[in-house]
Known about the structure:
The chain is α+β, with helices and mostly antiparallel strands. The protein is 48% helix and 17% strand. The longest helix has 38 residues, at 14-51.
Amino acid sequence: MVLLVRIVLALGLDDLVEWVLRGLVAFVVVAIVVALIVVQAVAMVLTGANANPPSGSGANAAREVTAPIAIPVPTAAAQGAGDLAKRVIGLAETWLGVPYVFGGCSRAGVDCSCLVQNVYAAVGIRIPRVAVDQFNATAPTSDPQPGDLVFFANTYQPGISHVGIYIGNGRQINAPTTGQVVSVAPVHTGYWGAHYAGARRVGG
């Protein structure tokens, strides 16, 4: 090898040898790059074929059976009625124990229709102030649900004269009369049952 180097130097061929060596290095680099590209292309073809077997194959059939099924999320409209009823009843319960005051409309004292108006206002629904107007502004229902309004007639005056919030199981939250407080009372029995005028739905 040393002898070969001396001969090259003696003949003045060192520039030619350097050019040949550089050419060989460039060729090797290009060959390696081409080999890598070919290997990658082959790998993609192979993995692509395996990732998508024919639709009748067992592997694909198994994936179709075990793939998770998207369960539709209930929409706001589907959940709205139940959520509203819970909110209405929860708010009405916060008024329990507040004294009845005829014409009253605060925590210091409230009457039946202002109790209803305040509770619904707290959930963003505006209804009239007086019981008869609330009756006329709502829709009748023969199957009252929690959150509906229950109306009574001929109590302290002729016609619709009292209202409560239905909470289910034949009960209401209402502001009854002077000397009493906001409380839970039966709808269909006793004094209120004798004056029951029907149930109505807000926004129905």
